[in-house]
Amino acid sequence: MTHAEGAGPICWCLTEGHAGMESQTVGLAEALSVTPIVKRVRLRFPWTHVPPRLALPPLNARKPGSDALALPWPDLLITCGRRSVGLSMRIRRESAGRTVAVHIQDPLVPAESFDLITVPEHDRLRGPNVMVTQAAIHRVTADKMAADAVRLAPTLAHLPRPLVAVLVGGSNRRYRLTPQRVTEICLDLAQAVGATGAGLAVTPSRRTGAKNERALRAGLAGLPAYIWDGEGANPYLGLLGLADAIVVTADSVSMVSEALATGKPVHVIECEGLSRRFDAFHTGLQTAGLTRPFCGRLEDWRYEPPDDTRIVAQEIARRLSARAGGGKG
Q1: Mapped to the 3 state alphabet, what secondary structure does the chain carry?
Q2: Number of domains in the chain
């Protein structure tokens, strides 16, 4: 594998393009201080239905509009999501093992198919090349939050303190967020505002949906609240940086993990639905004293923010160094 003399490793971040997955791969690359080449690839039929343990997809099994996968193979390949597993294994094979392949989340194939796998505690996979994290890998850093907080501060200057960042997700395969549930959440937020005099800085996500956003605005009408309208720069990191406390819906492991990077109180809103994995995730965080349920009351506590992204990045750097020196890593 070749790259410019003195340059860092060639790194691909390969996913289907889902924001949460891509953010994790890029966050890991950034923690390594490398500039990743983002690859968004979707497989065509029948490879969407063929498990990698049965057959690996050819590199031309991509849907139109997908990014190219061709020489030179990267020094480091970071993937996330089950649809990227087969392609990662294929690229690792095509590179004759010179590509260090790192996968985020349980790939549902033998762990030795990758050089390193990182899974959160609520995934069951364990092994000598499996690193277990307390929360999800993410891109949030203190520097990013501080920089965005400076830019956002004038917009939120009219809101009273304490300032509560409210991160609203939406429905997915495991949870449902409905206008009725949004209205209930707004009543709980109003109760917290009444007890503390807090201001609310709210950001919906792409999954929130128009009906839920309307219910959100109606439910918070008359309260000291800023609700992002989707126009202009995303205030997400700035909200994390400025907030005194954070309230986040339970549907997103990524949003909860990113909120924990602040070291501030993180209250989790229960959503409708059932998921053994998500329940294990939230139970683990609460047991560790990192999060607490939100029931209309703001509490104050302190914890050491999980440093999973940096720890995993250090192990990848060690393996890259060993590979460059002729070792197995």
Answers
A1: CCCCCCCCCCEEEEECCCHHHHHHHHHHHHHCCCCCEEEECCECCCCCCCCCCCCCCCCCCECCCCCCCCCCCCCEEEEECHHHHHHHHHHHHHCCCCCEEEEECCCCCCHHHCCEEEEECCCCCCCCCEEEECCCCCCCCHHHHHHHHHHHHHHHCCCCCCEEEEEECCCCCCEECCHHHHHHHHHHHHHHHHHHCCEEEEEECCCCCHHHHHHHHHHHCCCCEEECCCCCCCCHHHHHHHCCEEEEECCCHHHHHHHHCCCCCEEEECCEECCHHHHHHHHHHHHCCCEEECCCCCCCCCCCCCCHHHHHHHHHHHHHHHHHCCCCC
A2: 2
Question: Per the domain annotation, does 1 fall within a domain?
Answer: no
The phi, psi pair for 43, rounded to 5°, reads -85, 150
Q: For the whole model, what pTM was predicted?
A: 0.90
List residues bridging with 14 in a β-sheet.
39, 79
Q: Torsions phi, psi of 128, nearest 5?
A: -65, -25
* CATH code: domain of residue 222: 3.40.50.2000
pLDDT at 327: 61
For residue 51, give every residue at least 6 positions away whose Cβ sits within 8 Å of its Cβ, in sequence order, or none. 108, 109
Same-domain check for residues 151 and 220: yes
Contacts of 283 (CB under 8 A, 6+ apart): none
Q: Within this chain, do residues 77 and 160 fall inside the same structural domain, yes or no?
A: no
Sorted by sequence, the CB contacts under 8 Å of residue 122 that are 6+ apart come out as: 277, 278, 280, 281, 284
Same domain, 92 and 203: no
Same domain assignment for residues 86 and 220? no
Task: Split the chain (329 residues) into runs of 10 and give each run's mean pLDDT.
Answer: 56 94 96 96 96 94 96 97 96 95 96 96 91 95 97 98 97 91 97 98 95 98 96 95 97 94 97 83 95 97 95 94 72
